[in-house]
Backbone:
């Protein structure tokens, strides 16, 4: 068992493999927060359009949050490795509770000024950048079965993603956009309460006088990130997926399905995608592949079905079926990836590496979304979506061509073996073909 696993494993065993009082609290916090986050786009779109703003204003308000998050999450990772992650997460939730409450008041009173909404979005993004890195190290501190814990959280988040937009639509229809923002603020309050009640085992941390400078921590995180071939290669390949497949797929699928079949059909396809992600989470609870990233990459092939089905102009049931298959594949990959990072990277740098992971994963998505319109104008929506399907196949194949990725052995199967020299291979080292010795842990 790796150092990362052993640093949290004893606590997990005393609390049960996955479910315990503390994991249930964290599970609830994540599910409720995800429910609120999926309600936000509906509230922003409905509220801003109702007060005379256009689609550009909606995009600007959303971009303010994403830009601050992507730009600051690396620094949030350093803070998470230097200070109490639980306190940072509670503080971030309280900041977002306050900001979303202010936003609710603005919409309730009808005093909606775009720059104020953008500032609130930027504050939310900054708070999320402080919150997110701590998620990576919290899961293995609460459950010995890290894969099972990630699978359970993925299922909850997928279910919230299905319910959130529908709930937001009802609140807008029967109350107002302000009511959605008030409910969103309430989800942060509940999340903060759950985290306040959470009991985490102490994490090893240097004394304040021994703690390196902030910049040194930042540099060390980058050095640890790039020293792991399996880690940085996945992120590099993932950037291609974001630019050429995932980024264009999101807006172009919405446009194509709504124009050809109507918004109700798009809702059906989107729900099928969400149902697929739930299925992928359930599969991740059951299947325990020896080489997790290899299995995840194979599952990722399934995502190509979604853009390809829409690009091929199949009927709505066929597109919904393809969306469900794609969601299952993407969700299974997500659990395999999160668990691999969380169990292969040392606990003392995990939050920083998770921050680099998140920043690298998100960085290229806006680029892909921005290029979707011009590419569709030049080549046609159908051709861009079919190309996205092909790129997904190539990305999954590329992951399998990297020895450090396809040969990475799950951490709980690489404990010292009796009779092997020096206890057998080190955790994370590929049995064959690996280019680097991989130490312990990280997450998405």
Residues:
């Amino acid at each position: 068992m790796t150092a990362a696993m052993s640093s949290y494993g004893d606590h997990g065993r005393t609390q049960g493999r996955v479910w315990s009082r503390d994991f249930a609290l964290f599970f609830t916090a994540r599910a409720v927060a995800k429910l609120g986050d999926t309600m936000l786009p509906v509230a922003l779109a409905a509220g801003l359009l109702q007060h005379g703003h256009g689609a550009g204003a909606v995009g600007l308000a959303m971009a303010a949050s994403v830009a601050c998050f992507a730009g600051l999450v690396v620094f949030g990772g350093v803070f998470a490795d230097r200070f109490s992650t639980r306190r940072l997460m509670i503080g971030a939730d309280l900041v977002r509770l306050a900001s979303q409450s202010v936003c609710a008041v603005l919409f309730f009173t009808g005093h909606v000024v775009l720059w104020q909404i953008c500032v609130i979005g930027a504050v939310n993004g900054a708070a999320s950048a402080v919150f997110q890195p701590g998620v990576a190290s919290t899961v293995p501190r609460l459950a010995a079965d890290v894969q099972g814990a990630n699978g359970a959280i993925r299922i909850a988040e997928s279910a919230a993603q299905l319910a959130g937009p529908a709930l937001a639509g009802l609140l807008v229809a029967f109350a107002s956009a302000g009511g959605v923002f008030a409910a969103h603020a309430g989800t942060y309050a509940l999340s903060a309460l759950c985290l306040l009640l959470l009991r985490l085992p102490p994490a090893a941390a240097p004394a304040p006088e021994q703690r390196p400078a902030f910049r040194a921590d930042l540099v060390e995180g980058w050095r640890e990130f790039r020293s792991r071939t399996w880690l940085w290669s996945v992120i590099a390949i993932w950037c291609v997926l974001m630019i050429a497949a995932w980024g264009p797929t999101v807006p172009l699928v919405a446009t194509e399905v709504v124009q050809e079949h109507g918004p109700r059909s798009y809702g059906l396809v989107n729900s099928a995608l969400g149902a697929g992600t739930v299925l992928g989470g359930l599969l991740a609870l059951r299947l325990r592949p020896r080489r997790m990233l290899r299995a995840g990459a194979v599952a990722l092939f399934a995502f190509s079905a979604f853009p390809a089905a829409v690009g091929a102009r199949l009927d709505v049931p066929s597109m919904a079926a393809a969306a469900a298959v794609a969601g299952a594949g993407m969700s299974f990959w997500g659990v395999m990836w999160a668990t691999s990072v969380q169990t292969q990277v040392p606990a003392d740098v995990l939050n920083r590496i998770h921050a680099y992971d998140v920043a690298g994963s998100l960085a290229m998505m806006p680029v892909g979304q921005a290029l979707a319109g011009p590419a569709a104008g030049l080549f046609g929506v159908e051709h861009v979506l079919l190309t996205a399907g092909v790129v997904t196949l190539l990305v999954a194949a590329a992951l399998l061509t990297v020895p450090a990725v396809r040969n990475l052995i799950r951490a709980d199967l690489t404990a010292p073996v009796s009779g092997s020299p020096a206890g057998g291979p080190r955790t994370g080292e590929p049995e064959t073909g690996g280019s680097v010795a991989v130490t312990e842990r990280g997450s998405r």
Summary: Residues 229-261 form the longest helix (33 residues). The chain has 17 helices and no strands. Residues 1-16, 415-444 have pLDDT under 50 and may be disordered.
